[in-house]
Amino acid sequence: MRREKEEYYFRTRGLTVGYHGISLVRDIDLKLRKGEILTLIGPNGAGKTTVLRSILRQTEPLGGAVFLDGREMGRIRPEELSRRISVVLTERIRPEMMSCEEVVETGRYPYTGRFGILSEKDRLVVKESMELVQVSDIAGEAFEKVSDGQRQRVMLARALAQEPELIVLDEPTSFLDIRHKLEFLALLQRLSREKGLSVILSLHELDLAERISDKIACIRGDKVDRFGTPEEIFTAGYVRRLYQITAGDYDERTGTAELPMHEGTPEVFVIGGNGTGTPVYRRLQRQGIAFATGILWENDLDYPAARMLASEVVAERAFCRVREETMEKAKELIDRCRQVICTLGQEDGGDFYPELLELIEYGGCRGNGPGLAGIR
User: Fold this and answer.
1) 217 exposed, middle or buried (CB, 10 Å; 0-12, 13-18, 19+)?
2) Angle CA(154)–CA(159)–CA(161) in degrees, nearest 5?
3) Which of 46, 93, 342, 346 maximizes the CB count within 10 A of its CB?
4) Angle at the Cα of 328 (from 319 to 349), degrees rounded to 5?
5) What is the separation, in whole angstroms, between the first and last Cα of the chain?
6) Beta-strand (E) ranges in 130-240?
7) What is the pLDDT of residue 348?
8) Which SS3 state, helix, strand or coil, does residue 19 take?
9) Is residue 169 scored above 90 in pLDDT?
10) Which pairing describes strands 85-88 and 37-41: parallel, antiparallel, or unpaired?
11) Which residues lie across from 332 on neighbouring strands?
12) What does the pLDDT look like over 84-120, one tens digit per residue?
């Protein structure tokens, strides 16, 4: 036990979860060090929330064990657990006639005793928690009247007021716009780094999960299909298999999802590169126009979107010169297309890519700036 306690703050061993004696996810083995962030991902209905609730013992596990700092959680007194673990779930609580500050104050109940009377220390912790998540300015406002982003921050302040070692969050960004998603997750990341707070959460936003997580657990079918670092999880083609994507695609390298390409004989050839072609690819996809593109190097910013949206991509390996056969293939496609669009300006191609300049001249265009010329 001593070695386990030193190495991992939280872990599960053979955890099986479900309802009414019927298992949903089996043999869950997770490990988390102090100050790390673990994110659960997977399709809707895979069991992410059930796993979180079972970890918290809000739902009784069907088997296995959960350890906190080397101790089995089932043997830790509820009073102690309420001080060491805090929770932010997806349900929108509706406390009537309570200010935001009063909601945060409820996070101190594990310390106040049955009468819930706050001491000076309790009030100081509440104040510091609200300052930490930047909700002090709405302390006196009715909780039910503030925005979703503000509510989520207040609930995080409430959780922090418990002074936990571990915080568990179920889809905490569900009701937030992109600004507040980033601010919320950045705050969690800062707390994990600066205060050693361990975090377990579920997320639907794969790009954000990849950026914030130290460890990721992928739930698929009745098991944890993969568990590891983001670099170990997001390998080529895995997200497509995990979510059984049949329409569109996902690029693990860039964290980008694209709608299905319009298949068929290319009508338009796009000469792009350096990220200038992607907006045009997407506009052509929206208009249902099949297109080809090139010449792209496989490390070009446009390449991931091109691979997912273009009927044909003329490409070269990264850092390689354009081969004669690659140039000929691009020219053949141009000959078959009714329109050529160049998204490159002189500053994008310049003298560094004489092959692209040759292709631009062959296509009869000199660069259309943003690349939208000729597209209705």
Assistant:
1) buried
2) 90
3) 342
4) 45
5) 68
6) 166-170, 198-202, 215-220, 223-228
7) 53
8) strand
9) yes
10) unpaired
11) none
12) 999 987 665 667 789 999 999 999 988 887 777 899 9
Q: Structure pTM?
A: 0.85
Q: What is the dihedral of CA 316, 322, 324, 325, to 10 degrees?
A: 10
SS3 11: strand
What is the identity of the amino acid at 178? I
Can you read off the two tokens belonging to residue 340?
A: 């050529």
What is the CATH topology of the domain spanning 259-363?
A: Rossmann fold (3.40.50)
Predicted confidence (pLDDT) per residue in 196-221, tens digit: 999 999 999 999 999 999 999 999 98
Instruction: Please give the torsion angle defined by the CA atoms of residues 112, 116, 121 and 124, in that order, rounded to the nearest 10 degrees.
Output: 130
Q: Phi, psi at residue 69, to the nearest 5°? A: 55, 40
Strand partners, 217: 40, 227
Confidence check: pLDDT of 349 > 50: no
Helix H or strand E encompassing 207: helix 206-212
CA distance 187 to 210: 16
- Identity of residue 169: L
Strands lying side by side in the sheet with 339-342 = 312-316, 291-297, 268-271, 339-342
CA separation for the pair 359, 270 (Å, rounded): 11
> Could you tell me the pLDDT band of residue 373, with boundaries at 50, 70 and 90?
very low
For residue 190, pLDDT beyond 70: yes
pLDDT digits (tens, 9 = 90+) for 267-301: 999 999 999 999 999 999 999 999 999 999 999 99
- The CA–CA distances, whole Å, from 183 to 80, 133, 171, 190, 254 equal 30, 9, 15, 10, 21
The DSSP line for 61-82 is -SEEEEEETTEEGGGS-HHHHH
The letter for the amino acid at 192 is S
Q: In whole angstroms, what is the distance from residue 331 CA to residue 98 CA?
A: 69
